Amino acid sequence: MSQEIQPQATQLQPFSQACENNKVPILAVLKSAFANTTRVLEIGSGTGQHAVYFATNLPQLFWQTSDQAEYLEGIKARCLLQGHQLGINNLGFPITLDVTAPWPVNGTHIDAVFSANTLHIMSKSMVEAFFNGLGEYLPQLNTLCIYGPFNYQGHYTSDSNRQFDHFLKQRDSESGIRDIEWIIALAQAQGLTLVEDIAMPTNNRLLHFKHLLA
């Protein structure tokens, strides 16, 4: 880790069943997508479950966790406890990252970004800030992988996604499942090209973008 691991974790670790359900199929894609990656920034690490699992199974790279400030204690607790138990040395304690504020990554060689189940939680302006931040703060970015539900040509891919979108909008009118065409356009504006759109469990997708040299 970026700091010495201590075995005790004082904060109750948050848990997501969805992370447990999707981590294996996501890893199957990341093994190829991140094969030549040295340092991954995870935006929106949530419970930290993905971070611990992917760092354990992708030992050739360093996995840097991040999230908004209120989630950092839970992520750090998981990194401390499970990181010690598993002997992980390629997992970074979480940094505070708000996509709408300056990103604390100056001078850090980050060549890949991973984010799961975040874009439909963000407002549209935050999604735009997410992609603008990739271009502004990560000049060495080569690979981007995004997991979550997406619409195609304005249409839901399943009834469950339609219901989920309605739930999101009732909770926060600024959130919702995003159109993949818009996401591709935002990525292209930062020099990132969609190279894979992979079907995942429960009507989710994994979008794999690359910075393709001219």
Automatic annotation (TrEMBL):
It holds the Pfam family DUF938. InterPro entries: DUF938, SAM-dependent_MTases_sf. It comes from the Bacteria. PANTHER family: UPF0585 PROTEIN CG18661. This is Methylase.
